[in-house]
Amino acid sequence: MSVRIPRLGIVVVSLAVSSLLCVPALTSIADARAPGEAPSRHVPALTPGPDDALSRRLEAGTISAARYALERWASIVGRGVARRNPGATAPADLRSGTLFARDLLLRLPYLGTRARARGEWLLARPTDGVNDPDTPFGTDVGYSVAEAPPVCDAEQCIHYVATTANKVPAADTGGTIGVPDHVETVANVMGEVWAHEVGTLGYRPPKGDGASGNDGGDARFDVYLTNLGDDGLFGYCTSDDPHLTNGYRYGDMSAYCVLDNDYQSSEFGYLDPVLPLQVTAAHEFFHGVQFAYDIFDDGWLLEGTAVWIEDEVYDDVNDNLQFLASGSPLTNPTTPLDKNVPARWYGSWIFFRFVSEYFGPGNAEAPVLIRRIWNKADASNGGPDLYSTKAVATVVNNATKGGVDWTFAKAFRDFGVWNVTPAKRYAEGASYDPVEVQVEKTITASVSRFVTVGELDHLTHRYVQLKRASGVAAGANLKVVVNGPPGVTGPVATVVTIRTEGTLATRAVALGADGYGVVTVAFGSGIQRVVVVLANTSTRYVDCYDFAGVYSCNGGTPVDENEVFRVTAKLLQ
To answer: What structural domains and CATH numbers belong to the chain?
Structure first.
């Protein structure tokens, strides 16, 4: 039985393969190198923060990106200038804790000596807290006393303290005497997460941290429990891998994670504290896994797949449903799938759910495709190091459906179709809201023709819903004409007919090279509505790695934006 966590209010035209890549004339650095050849290192764009004084200083150029990242992370976990001057910062989207930490981590070399030292304190492991100077530059999450003996298994160690504000609950009623129950629960949950993500799903385990100056005692993966609830954080992962600063030219790094010490209901709003522990552990551990592939990758791939895997590990929790309500392809289909802003990152998990179910055999899921995407994004020595959208498109273009070779264009087309009636398509779709419709019109005998024109950016959908009035003849049909952009830009269109008893019929609109296509569908008795699903499936980019934009290809510029689609519907009776 699925249980949704109670919250308390706290916070088909086939494209040529080349059209799914960066435009050949303006190839990105990653595209230009051969597999195994070391790429030039690129620091990802900053995680978008709130519109506050700090962001305005960055926009005005009065502070650097590195200084901005320092002050933003300080406002989350530190006791520094941002905390002493609350008006300088607004609350950030703390779901993005890992990426705000990454912003600072990757920019430490660009800070001056004192600022860099402060940044290192802010990013330090909680066990470094006893060594932090007792100054405003310390953190609330660092331990101020020596840690208790860590609880370890073959793969990972759980670190905690038994006193101070960072202490875990003291109850010790079972299991190992002398180890608090909560620590044992965390150890069991982390064991389940490792077993499923690494064992069952086959992902690469986090890299060992034995080369770090502070490795938590040995090379095993480290999880630290501390009071993040005061800062509004569920958890985060970061790295102190020496490869980040010693000239290493690849993207695979070790990691460690920090989780809240108790997940109190008063801090997080969950009635059962084990539930947020489970999904946070699954999510944050997967960031540690991702860092073993590429710590530099696009936020939408990092966060979208991390939310997706929550439901793979803990299927009954369904915490990810909250992210469908705002910013997802269901509630905002006209926003590009790969837009690197937090509101989009988390809702994009539904696309990865679609991919795994869509290509699954029969009614079974195929989560292996998401692992293949990370194999294509792999930036370790010898890895392909494809940027996020190219990795996705490459995997889908090499997938088969029903024994037939498939394309990304057809899959993205059908992603839009599935979202019209998610309850009939997805395994848990009864819990998903139907997609937001952009245009709706009732067709009547007297108003028998309707025209609508709209623009679509890359990797977006637009929905035109046509309802049948009661006076329309029993044997009526509806002629739908689509005038889209040229075929090279990746336009696709589908007509979904929904009958009153709930059955569906789907017709692809064959668009020619000029973007024109027409179909005629039944619109008589028994028809409730017809939905025209338009899609811009383009994944073409230029100027990769210029960090001027918010899309994939590391801030590259999408080629096929503002593409015009005209839909004409005419009643035939």
So the answer is: 45-123 (no CATH), 145-295 (3.40.30), 437-572 (2.60.120.1050)
